[in-house]
Design goal:
single chain; 119 residues; alpha+beta; three-stranded antiparallel β-sheet; 3 helices; 15% strand; globular; binds zinc ion
Amino acid sequence: MAPPKHITYFNPDWLLDKRFSYWLQPAPKDNTLAACRLCSSGGQLKTFSLSSMGIKALESHASGSKHKIRAESYLNARENPIEGFLVQPPTQQSNAASSKTPSRGKFEFRDLLFVYFTG
Ligand SMILES: [Zn+2]
């Protein structure tokens, strides 16, 4: 019954998925692509095609060896925050006792847009 899906588009809900939220961002100008902050360097945004795979394209990217290495060092750095990483829990200081940060996904999404527009 559902129409055939030959192409998948970037889904902002993916930004709320913990598996992806710390590296995923929408690709500028093209919603058939996704971008990875961890794999981006030198001001060059690393993008990859979602093609017809949708979220599987994210999983596939995340399983790449380069990405894994970067993800690991990112997650380590997040344990011990240093400057240079733009995504930090906004409630860390004011609300350390709470493990729930329901607004975080939105915060990150806006943060990403900020990063994108300021380059
Ligand atoms: Zn990556």
